[in-house]
């Protein structure tokens, strides 16, 4: 499923995700996702949904929206793991699953207590040797 190069703004969206600029990330990746006819569009949408899920958690304390979007994003990213475009999707998925688990433990009443340090970043695969 590896594609040689993503659209030019893809890494801009990744940088916005990593900076926790989830609204901006949504705007950037949505344009790419909507214009892409191939299967890789599911990866763009998955990353977008994970970002929006954390936005719902942090900004709106919207439990249902956060849980739904995070799970949908994980599910869309999973077929592209362990990596795509040199990015460690396996780590993103695992860390998002941990954050989602914590959100579920907190529940609707305590979502405001979510520890934002659990939000993953989307990093490059480390080069060995």
- Measured as a percent range, the helix fraction is 55-70%
Q: Roughly how many Å apart are the termini?
A: 25 Å
Please state the CA-atom Rg, rounded to the nearest Å.
Answer: 14 Å
What is the N-to-C succession of helices and strands? HHHHEEH
What is the fourth-level CATH superfamily? TTHA0068-like
> What would CATH call the architecture?
Orthogonal Bundle
Strand content: under 5%
Low-confidence stretches: none
- CATH class category label: Mainly Alpha
Number of extended strands: 2
Rough outline: globular
Number of helices: 5
What would the CATH topology be? Hyaluronidase domain-like
**Spatial strand sequence of the major β-sheet:** 1-2
Mean pLDDT: 94
Assign the structural class, choosing from mainly alpha, mainly beta, alpha/beta, alpha+beta, or little secondary structure. mainly alpha
Organism: Candidatus Chlorohelix allophototropha
Protein name: DUF309 domain-containing protein
InterPro entries: DUF309 (IPR005500), TTHA0068_sf (IPR023203)
Describe this structure in words.
The structure is a single chain. The chain has 129 residues and is mainly alpha-helical. It has a single domain, classed as Hyaluronidase domain-like (Orthogonal Bundle), CATH 1.10.3450. The protein has 5 helices and 2 strands, in the order ααααββα. Strands 1-2 form a two-stranded antiparallel sheet.
């Amino acid at each position: 499923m590896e594609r040689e190069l993503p659209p030019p703004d893809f890494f801009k969206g990744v940088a916005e995700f990593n900076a926790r600029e989830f609204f901006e990330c949504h705007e950037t990746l949505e344009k790419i996702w909507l214009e892409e006819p191939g299967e890789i569009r599911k990866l763009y949408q998955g990353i977008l949904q994970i970002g929006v899920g954390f936005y719902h958690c942090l900004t709106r304390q919207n439990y249902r929206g956060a849980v739904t979007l995070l799970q949908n994003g994980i599910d869309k990213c999973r077929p592209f793991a362990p990596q795509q475009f040199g990015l460690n999707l396996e780590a993103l998925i695992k860390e998002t699953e941990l954050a989602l688990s914590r959100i579920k433990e907190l529940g609707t009443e305590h979502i405001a207590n979510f520890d934002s340090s659990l939000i993953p970043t989307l990093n490059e695969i480390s080069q060995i040797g």
